[in-house]
Design a protein that fits this description.
With 105 residues, this protein is an all-alpha fold. It contains 3 helices and no strands. The longest helix is centred in the middle third of the chain and has 25 residues. It comes from Brachybacterium rhamnosum.
Amino acid sequence: MNTDPRSALAALIAALERHYEAAAASRGDDDPALEAATEQLTSAFDTYDDALFEAYDIATPLIVFDGDEDDDDDDFDDFEDLDDLDDEDDEDDFDDEEEGDGDER
């Protein structure tokens, strides 16, 4: 594939506009116009990402999910670990506040 990154970017922007219009006019997830716009957006993004990589050896920092609900949810376990760390930090902040309340009078 030898696509010009600039023209692929223009096609991606146009696909984003079409997707926005379809989303704004949509009456639900099963809307055929929204599904078509989503497929076009995914294709335009892939084309742009490939063209950018071919031309400059750089990839976009974005990932397109394919929407398969049958995928294993193990990938999301890592996010639970992050939530646990946030909870621990919040507890430390709360303890610090309690210690300071009696000293300020």
